[in-house]
Every structure is written in C-alpha cells, then in structure tokens.
Amino acid sequence: MRFLALGLVVSACGPQMMTVDAGKNEFACDSMTAEVTLAGKVQAEIFDKQCKSCHNAFDASNGDYSDATRTAAAIAKPSQFAMALKPVVPNDLSKSVLWRKMNALKGPGGEDLKGVMPPGGMLPAASLQLVRDWICTGGK
Ligand code: HEC
Questions:
Q1: Domain limits for position 131
Q2: How many domains does the chain have?
Q3: In ligand 1, which atom is closest to the CA atom of 115?
Q4: CB contact set of 1 (below 8 Å; sequence gap of 6+)
Q5: Residue 54 placed within a domain
Q6: What is the DSSP code (8-state) at residue 60?
Q7: What is the pTM for the complete model shown?
Q8: How far is the CA of 112 from the centre of ligand 1 (A)?
C-alpha cells in the first residue's frame, strides 16, 4: 500500500520534472557563471526561504540549514543514505545528494534517497539553476 501511494506521487510529479531539465543533462556543470556562494546568495534565496522551516536546530538530524555557517557544516557530512555520498560534493552534481533530491532522482548506485526536497515539490527552474551554479562553482 505504501509503495502504491509512493508510485502515485512519483507519477504525479512526472510532467513537472520534464519541464525543469528538458534537454539538459542534470549532472552537467556547464554553466559559465561567476562564483556563487552560500553567504552571497544561496542561503537567503534557497535555504532560508525553502528549507530551514524543517532543517534547523530543533531537528538537526537531516541537516541544520538555519544559517550559512551551519549549512556549510551540514552539507559536508556523509549522507544518511550512503556514507560515500554527501549532500554537496563541490563541483560534482552527480555525487551531491542535495541536488539529486531537489531533482527527485535516485543515488548514483540506485540508492533510494527518499523524497524530493522540498517535500512540497520541485522548485522552479531558476531556483534549481542557482543551486546548480553554486555547487558547480565550488559549493562554498
Ligand atoms: C517540510 C519539511 C522539509 C523541508 C521544507 C525541506 N526538507 Fe529536506 N528533509 C526533510 C526530511 C524529513 C528529511 C529526511 C527524510 C528524507 O530524506 O526524505 C530531509 C532530508 C534532506 C536531505 C538528506 C540529507 C542526507 O542525509 O543526505 C537533504 C540533502 C535535504 N533534505 C535537503 C533539503 C533542501 C535543499 C531543502 C530546501 C530546498 C529541504 N530539504 C527542505 C524535511 C524537509
């Protein structure tokens, strides 16, 4: 029953996923952009607005993203889903669990990374592009 419900959720997300990365390799670090940083933009634009309502000091078990310093520490720890993976591996979208979850993708070895982040559904393409640029310019 649980699997059935999950299947329905996944298929409901299908059309939306198509538009976000249409024609684009979801793991390519090919954007020509100046360095994007947590403190400069990503903390305020992504983590503060979309993530820290759940990812905070009250429940840090999935990563405390409540400010740029805490986010930097949390994303560098091994993922709960696979010790070899981390939420963010600088310049490597494929090994970055955070990127995979934001795109509703499994792990590189087919690991089940659970739900999309944020759980309400994938963020718009512009937000995903900001996260891509951040990870692809060093993830600092
Ligand atoms: C409504 C609450 C909620 C919001 C909002 C939320 N998360 Fe999560 N997050 C969770 C929960 C619960 C888990 C653990 C279960 C899971 O992974 O599905 C989790 C797990 C994760 C993990 C896995 C960490 C690991 O150990 O590998 C990452 C990465 C992550 N979230 C990133 C994000 C990002 C980035 C955002 C914002 C864009 C976000 N989350 C927004 C609740 C939330």
A1: 35-136
A2: 1
A3: 18
A4: none
A5: yes
A6: G
A7: 0.87
A8: 14
